[in-house]
């Protein structure tokens, strides 16, 4: 379960699993906005205040803001779906 004010894990997975070629322009835009706002919320929330589940979720979505691709993006890149 995600912390209050953060994007839910099911939304993140749903956006990551659906191929970019099947997304509408609106979906691409929405994913980008949600990702940026979730990343900002991750940065604003101190690690000490994050739930255990949120810490794990941030690790998988690479919301540590260290300019590294997320595990999901790395997987997409490995199978040739990484060009967004």
TrEMBL record:
Keyword Repeat (UniProt): no
Feature: compositional bias, Basic and acidic residues: 19-37
UniProt cross-references to Gene3D superfamilies, sorted A to Z: 6.10.250.2440
Region (Disordered): 1-84
InterPro entries (UniProt xref): HSP9_HSP12
Tagged with keyword Protein biosynthesis: no
One Pfam family cited in the UniProt record for this chain: HSP9_HSP12
Keywords for the protein's UniProt record, in alphabetical order: Stress response
Composition bias type Polar residues, residue spans: 1-10, 59-75
Protein name, UniProt field: Heat shock protein 9/12-domain-containing protein
Lineage: Eukaryota, Fungi, Dikarya, Basidiomycota, Agaricomycotina
């Amino acid at each position: 379960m995600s912390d209050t004010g953060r994007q839910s894990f099911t939304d993140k997975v749903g956006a990551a699993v659906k191929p970019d070629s099947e997304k509408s322009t609106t979906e691409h835009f929405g994913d980008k906005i949600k990702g940026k706002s979730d990343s900002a919320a991750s940065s604003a929330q101190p690690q000490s205040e994050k739930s255990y589940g949120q810490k794990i979720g941030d690790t998988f979505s690479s919301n540590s803001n260290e300019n590294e691709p997320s595990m999901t993006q790395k997987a997409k890149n490995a199978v040739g779906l990484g060009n967004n």
